[in-house]
Amino acid sequence: MNKKFAFNKVNYILIAIGVVIIILGFVLMTGPSTTETTFEPSIFSARRIKVAPLVCLLGFLFMIPAIMYRPKGKKQEEQEKTEE
Known about the structure:
By secondary structure, this protein is mainly α. It has three helices and no strands.
């Protein structure tokens, strides 16, 4: 019995890379927080306001081609199987 999966090994590797990029973006957002008694000016740093959300966005955008990726030879194999 030949099982067909929606993704192949390359898809899973690319998806894992995308997840790691997204996690990196969330890690970049972390840092000390402001409380009622103390003000922490680092909450307005460029890393937490600009860089981290951009890294997360790039990770999510990278997931689209990671999911849609199909090896070049796969279309030819499918056409040959349907012709038989």
